[in-house]
Every structure is written in structure tokens, then in C-alpha cells.
């Protein structure tokens, strides 16, 4: 069949005119209602966080998340794009929870760390749905872009000293770079070495801050083991942001000492219970042996 260019052009132009006429008619009859609905959606874009701000104010938000409303907005500006792409489309449909509400809820979960069921009940979710939401938030926040991430995928970095140079062939070891024979390090390498060395000094203070502001980092971990790495990477990243607001202090090192003491207490308690179980087992065996001996004597 020969192509009729004029007929095709006329049909498409007529279709364009019909479409525009339909849009104009719709705007005339339903424009105000659509505008009101859109403004209503914008006003309630973050209903969960907005309600908390209204009810408990900025100081209450700080107690829930470790950040005031202003600090939260700064944090949000860093993760806005990643969160929008992660949550706006879920299985081909829009997530009912806004990205900002989702990260607000995730911060409260990391700070206060309880069971999924308790946290889900606080926000009106079913536990499985709530867990999926939080883990989607955490997995979208911190892609691992650190040193040797491509070489050792899924591995945590180990901060080691000069004695472990070459460890990166088998482990993800981060260490100062050695000066090459008959050569010298450039400015960027010297700066990196200084940064690595300074990490040794602040590591205990940093872990103290992590444990003090995120309960999930120091409490007995009871969630799925496969989620542990993603959760802890997020708490470290959030702590880095927290340090930009409040620098490390001696109190952080003291808190870390208390955390280590708690772990030691737990280990001692576990050892005591095991010794008590073994003692009772030995006593029971002795009693059974004595009873068997009495029966033999009677026979």
C-alpha cells in the first residue's frame, strides 16, 4: 500500500487538536479541584515527621534522632537524591511513605534499637513491611566507595600499621604508604599517610561516639545477620556527619571504655553460667553414680 503523507499529517494534527481541546475542557471543569488536591498533597508530603515536629518540637526531634530539625535538613540535603530514587518507585508503584519520613524513622530505629515489632507498632506498620522499608533506606544511603572496595567487595577495611604492608593481596588493609627506594612521596600521599595515622589516635573516641548515639551499635544485636554490615556502615557514616556538628571529646573515649566494660561483664556472666551448668552436671553424675552403687550393693 502506498504511503499517503498528507493523510498521515492531517490525522496527527487532528489528534493533537482533539487532545488540546480535551485538556482545556478538563482544566475548565476540574482545574480548581486538581489544584486544591495538589496543594493538599504538598502540605502533607511528610506527614509522619511533620506530626512529630508539631507535637514535640525540634528538641524532641533531637532526642529521637540525635539531630535537631535544622541539622536533619542538612543531612537530608546530602541524601535527598539517593533516597528519592530508592523509595519513590517500589515494584512499579509509588511508596506510600515519603523518602524524608523514611529516613526520619530509620534514624529513630538506629538510635533506640528495639524489636521490629515494637518499632513497627510505633509508626503504624506491619513488622515485615517496616523491616523492608528501613533496610531499603539503609542500603541506599552508603554505597561503599572507600579504598579497595572494588578489589574486596563486601569486606570491611582493616586499619593496620606499616608492618602489614602487602596485606591487601588477601585482606582489605588500609596502611600508610611506604616511601619508595631512592624516591619520595608526593603531597597527596603524605596527606593520606597523615590521615591514616591520625585515625589511630581517634579510633577509640570515634567508636565511643558511635556507641553513645546509636544504640544499635552497642546493644546485643538481634536482627538478621545479613543486615549487620549495612546497618553499621550507616551508623559510621551518620557519626561522621554528627562529628561535623560536635567534635570528638574525652567523654567519647570514656563512653567507649564503659561499653568495653559492659562486654567484659557479659563475657564473665556467660562464663559463670557455663561453669554453674558444668558444676550441676558433675553433681548430677555423682548422685546417679552413688544411687547405682547403692542398688548394686542391695543386689
TrEMBL record:
Checking Pfam families in the record gives: DDE_Tnp_4 (PF13359)
The name this protein goes by in its record: DDE Tnp4 domain-containing protein
Q: In the record, what terms sit under GO molecular function? A: metal ion binding
Q: Which InterPro entries match?
A: HARBI1_dom
- Biological source species: Aphanomyces astaci
Where along the sequence do coiled-coil regions lie?
A: 260-287
Entry superkingdom: Eukaryota
- Which residue ranges does the record assign to the DDE Tnp4 domain? 151-240
Identify which cofactors the protein needs according to its UniProt entry.
a divalent metal cation
Q: Which UniProt keywords apply?
A: Coiled coil, Metal-binding
Amino acid at each position: 500500500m502506498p504511503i499517503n503523507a498528507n493523510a498521515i499529517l492531517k490525522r496527527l494534527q487532528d489528534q493533537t487538536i482533539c487532545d488540546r481541546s480535551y485538556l482545556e475542557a478538563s482544566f475548565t471543569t476540574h482545574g480548581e479541584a486538581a489544584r486544591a488536591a495538589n496543594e493538599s498533597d504538598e502540605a502533607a508530603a511528610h506527614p509522619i515527621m511533620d506530626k512529630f515536629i508539631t507535637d514535640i518540637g525540634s528538641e524532641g526531634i533531637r532526642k529521637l534522632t540525635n539531630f535537631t530539625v535544622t541539622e536533619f535538613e542538612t543531612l537530608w540535603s546530602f541524601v535527598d537524591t539517593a533516597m528519592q530514587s530508592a523509595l519513590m518507585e517500589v515494584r512499579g508503584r509509588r511508596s506510600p511513605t515519603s523518602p524524608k519520613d523514611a529516613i526520619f524513622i530509620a534514624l529513630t530505629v538506629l538510635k533506640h534499637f528495639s524489636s521490629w515489632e515494637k518499632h513497627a507498632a510505633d509508626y503504624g506498620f506491619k513488622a515485615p513491611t517496616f523491616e523492608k522499608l528501613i533496610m531499603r533506606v539503609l542500603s541506599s544511603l552508603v554505597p561503599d566507595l572507600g579504598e579497595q572496595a572494588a578489589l574486596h567487595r563486601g569486606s570491611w577495611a582493616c586499619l593496620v600499621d606499616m608492618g602489614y604492608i602487602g596485606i591487601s593481596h588477601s585482606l582489605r588493609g588500609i596502611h600508610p604508604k611506604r616511601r619508595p627506594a631512592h624516591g619520595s612521596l608526593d603531597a597527596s600521599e603524605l596527606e593520606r599517610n597523615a590521615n591514616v595515622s591520625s585515625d589511630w589516635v581517634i579510633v577509640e573516641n570515634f567508636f565511643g561516639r558511635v556507641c553513645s548515639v546509636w544504640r544499635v551499635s552497642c546493644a546485643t544485636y538481634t536482627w538478621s545477620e545479613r543486615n549487620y554490615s549495612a546497618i553499621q556502615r550507616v551508623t559510621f557514616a551518620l557519626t561522621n556527619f554528627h562529628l561535623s556538628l560536635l567534635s570528638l571529646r574525652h567523654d567519647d573515649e570514656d563512653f567507649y571504655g564503659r561499653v568495653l566494660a559492659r562486654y567484659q561483664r557479659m563475657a564473665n556472666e556467660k562464663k559463670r553460667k557455663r561453669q554453674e551448668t558444668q558444676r550441676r552436671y558433675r553433681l548430677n553424675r555423682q548422685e546417679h553414680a552413688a544411687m547405682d552403687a547403692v542398688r548394686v550393693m542391695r543386689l
